[in-house]
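Quick one:
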Amino acid sequence: MEGITHRRIRTYGIWIHVAELGKLPLVLLIHGFPKLWSSWNYQMTHLAKHGYRVVAPDMRGYRDFDSPPDLASYTTLHLVGDLIGLLDQLGEEKVVHLLYWKNLFYHLLRSSSTR
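Output:
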């Protein structure tokens, strides 16, 4: 996983762990259950070599991402809100979306990223 950097980003009162590699334009890679950001290692390396900035966050409740104790804090809208907050903190307005988990994320993120 050479060259991949890690950091925690605070948004909407929680900390999100992200792995990053490369330069713009941005590709956001989202894992599903029971994966982690590292499930995208091959894709991150490949995309970065082809000129993309790749960000792969751990999702809410996974690994080094905050885990709110209330189960009601794990709805699809919370997860989409986390990703929108992440994009805001990254200072990015345009994203190429490669999603692994639920087509609903694609539709919600697409409509919010065109603001």
